[in-house]
Design goal:
The complex is a heterotrimer of chains A (118), B (112) and C (135). By secondary structure, chain A is mainly alpha-helical. Helices cover 58% and strands 7% of the residues of chain A. Helices cover 73% and strands 0% of the residues of chain B. Classes of the chains: A mainly alpha (118), B mainly alpha (112), C alpha+beta (135). Chains in contact: A-B, A-C, B-C.
Chain lengths: 118, 112, 135
């Protein structure tokens, strides 16, 4: 994703992770908005498997984000969104985003220190 | 896969500075820059060791950061601690480098 | 589901279990006055089977609903000759569900759910403080 020479595999991977977590946050918000929409199936985002595979191949920037529909049981109105699940997932996702952002900042800070702009 | 750490230090030049510095300390103003006084060499090898350790610390933090990215990290404190230690070690090494360069320049400025 | 923030999964599993129990008890209460004739089974009390989840560390990994059980289909046979469903002997079936028991279960399930919500929030606070290491 980066065209400069300063990024490495770790910053690229973290960048992809942040993209993926962003997408997941959006899906969670959509699910919550559609809590009672008839026949709505909850959306699930997966970027981890793609990122792992891309890392194994050596180029994390090739990772993609995919969306799928949840196979959980539906209620009478055909909707299968579980509010508890979505709220908890939202909390957890926020923390993962904080972790990824922190990791990316730490990488850049390391480079700054080595360059001399502590 | 990662960029080599940006470390514009060559142990050899520091070793020479160490060698010259030591010769000056022992009062011998005509000692050549290549004198391998024991003090100078150990500083160079100490710094080289330090660079290895910093490299290893950065690589470790990188590895854990990748696990954090893919969601496979077993304990986040492993990552945050490794990252902090790598940062501090880098700062320490840069400080040592800066002091060593400063000392070298001081010595070179001395009237012989 | 989450390897990184594992404790959140543990609290989540607890919340799931108590929610399921809450639903089962609510179901029992809703059907407590169902009357059936003697030729059909009565409404059967719902029980939730729960088991602890282990993950190899020995520290435990929450709870899971592993099945459901149903109470006695015979219910309580009562004498109610004026009921439209009464048989030749004036008997009907009512569910073998005790309201006081169900109200107690309701309290327990609710408290259990809330306790797990607390557990989730405390774990999240702990993780957030770990994230501040080195800052």
């Amino acid at each position: 994703m980066s065209i400069t020479g300063i990024s490495d595999a770790v910053t690229a991977a973290l960048h992809q992770a942040i993209n993926g977590l962003d997408a997941r946050q959006q899906a969670i918000s959509s699910n919550i908005a559609n809590l009672e929409t008839p026949n709505y199936l909850a959306k699930e985002v997966d970027f981890e498997s793609s990122l792992r595979a891309a890392l194994d191949d050596g180029d994390p920037s090739k990772a993609t984000v995919s969306v799928s529909q949840s196979l959980a049981a539906t209620r009478l109105n055909g909707n299968n969104v579980n509010i508890d699940f979505e709220l908890l997932a939202s909390s957890e996702n926020v923390m993962r985003q904080k972790l990824a952002v922190q990791a990316l900042n730490a990488k850049y800070q390391l480079l700054r220190t080595a360059i001399g702009n502590t | 896969m990662a960029l080599p750490p940006i470390m514009p230090i060559s142990p050899i030049s520091i070793g020479s500075a160490g060698g010259v510095g030591n010769a000056v300390q022992s009062g011998n103003a005509t000692a050549s820059a290549g004198t391998s006084a024991t003090g100078g060499q150990s500083f160079a090898s100490t710094l080289a060791d330090q660079l290895d350790k910093v490299s290893a610390a950065q690589a470790n933090a990188d590895q854990l950061a990748l696990q954090a990215a893919t969601g496979d990290l077993q304990s986040i404190q492993d990552y945050t601690i490794a990252s902090t230690e790598a940062q501090l070690m880098t700062q320490l090494t840069v400080a040592i480098r800066n002091k060593a360069v400063e000392a070298f320049n001081e010595i070179m400025r001395m009237q012989v | 589901m989450s390897a990184i923030f594992g404790i959140l999964d543990v609290a989540k599993s607890g919340m799931g279990v108590y929610k399921t129990w809450l639903n089962a008890v609510a179901d029992n209460i809703a059907n407590i006055d169902d009357v059936t004739d003697t030729s059909t089974p009565a409404f059967q009390e719902r029980f939730v089977q729960v088991q602890a989840v282990e993950d190899g560390t020995g520290f435990g990994h929450g709870a899971a609903v592993v099945g459901a059980e149903f109470g006695d289909p015979n219910g309580r046979v009562t004498y109610d000759p004026n009921h439209p469903l009464a048989d030749a002997n004036g008997l009907v079936r009512r569910p073998d569900v005790d309201l006081t028991d169900q109200m107690v279960y309701l309290q327990l399930a609710q408290r259990g759910y809330q306790a797990n919500v607390q557990a989730f929030e405390r774990a999240r606070d702990a993780y957030e403080s770990i994230l501040t290491i080195g800052k």
